[in-house]
Amino acid sequence: MKRWGTLNLAVATLALVLSACGSAPPLRYYTLVPPAGGAATVTPTASSFQFELLPVTVPAQVDQPQMVVREGGQGVAVLQGQRWIAPLGDEVRGALAADLARDFRAQDVTGLPNQGKATVRIKLDVRRFDSVPGSYAYIDAAWSVRALKGGDPLACTSRFSETVGAGYDALVQGHQQAISRLAGQIGAVAGAMAAGQSASCPAG
């Protein structure tokens, strides 16, 4: 009897495990990098340029494989079913590089030998990356641009808040739009510097 009781317990335990696995929600992966071939969202005012984009830093609170969203004034939730396809810093960097290439005909030459063309170095530090489903996507960033041929870097800050609809797709799209607007500001400064022109931080 003891043997049969142990066997029944093992079968019941296995059934619970299989049931839990079967009811687990599927994972969804998201990217901030826009699809290739999209139309430019700004009209560049300077010539195309080359850039080196340093690794992007993001706040430790959101530097997780899972999407982290705000709940109320103090709470946050780590969403086990919604995840970034790559580390969040890499996602922001990839999105920014893609937006610069699309909107300014710029070329990312990070890690490549310098070919004598005008090149600028871009540094981006995302200080806040807030996600509120059905409400807004917010980015607060400090960034700098420096011409590699010499000159002082220009350090600026930017803040963007995008209203978003319901659902996580809309939330990710809001962050994509915020990064696209950020790329517009950085690209305008980078293009001017690469062309040897004076540049200033964007107003506001």
TrEMBL record:
<feature type="signal peptide">
    <location>
        <begin position="1"/>
        <end position="24"/>
    </location>
</feature>
<dbReference type="Pfam" id="PF03886">
    <property type="entry name" value="ABC_trans_aux"/>
</dbReference>
<dbReference type="InterPro" id="IPR005586">
    <property type="entry name" value="ABC_trans_aux"/>
</dbReference>
<feature type="domain" description="ABC-type transport auxiliary lipoprotein component">
    <location>
        <begin position="30"/>
        <end position="186"/>
    </location>
</feature>
<protein>
    <recommendedName>
        <fullName>ABC-type transport auxiliary lipoprotein component domain-containing protein</fullName>
    </recommendedName>
</protein>
<keyword id="KW-0732">Signal</keyword>
